[in-house]
């Protein structure tokens, strides 16, 4: 029974005396008795919340006796009913559900484990515990039996005299949580949170630990919509089923509009009003009893409200969807997109996808094996932790970004809202006190995780509807002086290499000349055009040399519009331009010609040739600059796996010295002037 306490156990014991429980004990009893983990922890927390071996031993005896005497195993129903008759009353732990009996104008309760559906219960008890009217909750119940009532016609002899919901009702839990948190570093605190949900953090990679924390966000953030898909057996639904009485799991995905939102006949509010988190397990099977069920859910996910007749009802329950891929991620991306496992009416609906605040990469989490991944150490008692999480929902911490993190131009309003919500949730989990400073180093990985998990949603939208969701290059800048950083989703491998598919109109790969120190560098330039006038650079902090490249490209387009873009008038369009530096060179100099190609491609709606890097600086008069380091640029193009390098013809002599193996690995094409370059770079 005894456990070798490690440094984190001792630290936790000093910070949260009376709120800790040994997680291996929890598993031992939750396997033996037919109740979820948090019910076992509730009792262990009451009698064994100690690190003292003797106290734990004494507490365990009490817990074991209570679980033995008060939980009903299959086949023991009649035994418990007989006890109630003989003794007059019994105590048991069960789910309590209730409904209105309109014939007799009273409420009746149901106790599933005793197969009783007509237990008398006082109106007051139902009013104080409304959740029993939706899907019920676990409680310690005093059940009495009245022999006189039993003899009446249609008499109901069983009655619930009192009940105590299995959850903590202390008012100062957040002060306790915040006070203890101050003793931990962020890394230690992450590990304690992960141990508190029963997992051993040492068995996880850094990405898996971050995913474990991301899974907790729906508990602390109101109306947070989260999806996680991945292989089977990675513990996706465990958190939503076992850890918190404030979460409700719909297994098999079958739901009714009345149960989920509102019962129009009785006016009874549904699960999203009663719980903090409603989780659909096996997301591929989500179905409603009414045709418009998915639309009601879609509307609710966007606005946090739904209507019943003329009345609009607001609710705060977040929607979580978890499900399995039957293939690996790369295969899934080949056969469809990463939201393909959703049911047909949601699968390709980009408006539905837009309502998802984050997509957790379930494939980054290992298959959970009890010996390796489950912890035997101390963690916070679930009902204490879930009570804290529920109370944190009333705070908003997205202001932590103000003046510190600037989001790039590719994010739409919905993207910004999603990233803010994820950030707010992660900050609440890791820094539960509002006045706790969030160091830059932590804020940076939090914002990267928030951007990545939203961009994953965006990438799937793009696969369904390319033209509308073209720009998914999410970026951020730390502070006013910081460099713009781009956040990729790691499963998209083509992000840094040159893909051979034609690029969308307005996008080009380009090489700068660079500086003697940095050498040439690869850039991705992206231009979108719409009604208006002028050119807008979306990069938060763009270099003077890049601004100059843009100005030169823009002026050449205006001066030579007829030969470059025919009858289209560039002065009637507003262009938005963004550059991403892929290498050490961030100067952005000498990119005038690639900028011109991108502007023309965007205006003409023509794709850029795939696998091609474009090189060349321009003057305002339209002449092409000399390239001082053509050989180094050719070597860079080979490194980036490009197929074609498009260069000014003046660079040809320099390339005489190019090694034979480079000539055989890339096709080098030359252009004589700017319009020749535009013609050769765009796909006819």
UniProtKB/TrEMBL annotation:
What InterPro entries does the record point to?
BrxL-like, BrxL_N, Lon_proteolytic, Ribosomal_Su5_D2-typ_SF, Ribsml_uS5_D2-typ_fold_subgr
Gene3D superfamilies this protein is in? Answer: 3.30.230.10
The family database entries (Pfam families) matched by this protein are listed as:
BrxL_ATPase, BrxL_N, Lon_C
Q: Which residues form the BREX system Lon protease-like BrxL N-terminal domain?
A: 15-145
Q: Is Protease tagged as a keyword?
A: yes
Q: Where is the Lon proteolytic domain?
A: 517-683
Any one GO MF term held by the record is:
serine-type endopeptidase activity
GO terms (BP aspect): proteolysis
Q: Which UniProt keywords apply?
A: Hydrolase, Protease
Give the highest taxon in the source lineage: Bacteria
The entry's protein name is ATP-dependent Lon protease
> What is the species listed in this Swiss-Prot or TrEMBL entry?
Granulicella pectinivorans
């Amino acid at each position: 029974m005894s456990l070798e306490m490690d440094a984190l156990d001792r630290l936790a014991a000093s910070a949260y005396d009376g709120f800790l429980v040994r997680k291996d004990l929890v598993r031992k009893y939750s396997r033996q008795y037919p109740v979820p983990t948090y019910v076992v922890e509730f009792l262990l927390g009451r009698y064994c919340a100690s690190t003292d071996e003797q106290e734990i031993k004494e507490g365990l005896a009490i817990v074991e006796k209570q679980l033995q005497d008060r939980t009903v195993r299959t086949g023991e129903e009649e035994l418990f009913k007989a006890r109630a008759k003989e003794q007059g009353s019994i105590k048991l732990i069960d789910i309590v559900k209730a409904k209105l009996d309109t014939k007799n104008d009273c409420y009746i309760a149901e106790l599933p484990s005793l197969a009783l559906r007509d237990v008398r219960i006082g109106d007051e008890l139902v009013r104080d515990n409304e959740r029993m009217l939706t899907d019920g909750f676990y409680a310690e119940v005093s059940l009495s039996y009245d022999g006189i009532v039993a003899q009446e016609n249609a008499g109901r002899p069983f009655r619930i005299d009192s009940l105590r919901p299995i959850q903590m009702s202390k008012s100062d839990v957040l002060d306790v949580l915040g006070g203890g948190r101050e003793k931990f570093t962020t890394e230690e605190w992450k590990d304690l949170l992960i141990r508190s949900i029963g997992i051993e953090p040492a068995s996880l990679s850094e990405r898996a630990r971050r995913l474990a924390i991301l899974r907790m966000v729906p508990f602390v953030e109101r109306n947070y919509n989260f999806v996680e898909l991945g292989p089977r057996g990675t513990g996706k639904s465990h958190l939503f089923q076992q850890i918190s009485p404030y979460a409700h799991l719909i297994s098999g995905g079958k739901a009714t509009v009345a149960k989920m939102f509102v019962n129009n006949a009785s006016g009874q509010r549904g699960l999203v009003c009663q719980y903090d988190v409603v989780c659909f397990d096996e997301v591929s099977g989500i179905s409603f009893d009414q045709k418009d069920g998915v639309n009601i859910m879609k509307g609710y996910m966007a606005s946090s409200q739904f209507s019943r007749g003329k009345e609009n009802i607001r609710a705060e329950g977040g929607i979580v969807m978890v499900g399995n891929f039957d293939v690996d991620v790369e295969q899934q991306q080949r056969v469809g997109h990463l939201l393909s496992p959703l049911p047909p009416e949601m699968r390709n609906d980009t408006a539905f996808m837009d309502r998802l605040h984050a997509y957790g990469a379930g494939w980054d989490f290992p298959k959970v094996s009890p010996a390796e991944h489950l912890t035997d150490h101390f963690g916070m008692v679930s009902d204490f932790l879930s009570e804290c999480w529920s109370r944190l929902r009333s705070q908003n911490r997205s202001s932590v970004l103000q003046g510190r993190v600037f989001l790039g131009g590719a994010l739409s309003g919905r993207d910004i809202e999603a990233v803010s919500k994820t950030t707010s949730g992660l900050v609440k989990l890791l820094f539960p006190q509002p006045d706790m400073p969030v160091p830059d180093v932590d804020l940076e990985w939090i914002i990267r995780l928030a951007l990545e998990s939203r961009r994953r949603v965006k990438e799937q939208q793009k696969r369904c509807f390319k033209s509308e969701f073209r720009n998914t290059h999410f970026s951020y800048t730390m502070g006013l002086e910081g460099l713009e950083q781009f956040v990729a989703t790691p499963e998209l491998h083509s992000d840094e290499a040159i893909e051979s598919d034609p690029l969308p109109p307005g996008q080009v790969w380009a090489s700068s000349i660079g500086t003697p120190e940095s050498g040439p560098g690869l850039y991705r330039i992206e231009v979108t055009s719409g009604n208006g006038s002028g050119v807008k650079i979306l990069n938060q902090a763009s270099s003077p040399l890049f601004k100059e490249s843009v100005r030169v490209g823009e002026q050449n387009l205006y001066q030579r519009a007829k030969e470059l873009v025919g009858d289209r008038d560039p002065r009637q369009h507003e262009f938005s331009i963004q550059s991403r530096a892929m290498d050490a060179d961030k100067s952005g100099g000498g990119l005038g010609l690639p900028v011109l190609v991108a502007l023309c491609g965007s205006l003409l709606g023509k794709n850029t040739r795939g696998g091609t890097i474009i090189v060349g600086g321009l003057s305002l008069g339209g002449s092409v600059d000399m390239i001082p380091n053509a050989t180094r640029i050719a070597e860079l193009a080979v490194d980036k796996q490009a197929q074609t390098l498009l260069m000014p013809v003046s660079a040809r002599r320099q390339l005489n010295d190019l090694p034979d193996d480079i000539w055989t690995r890339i096709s080098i094409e030359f252009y004589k002037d700017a319009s020749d370059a535009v013609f050769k770079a765009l796909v006819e």
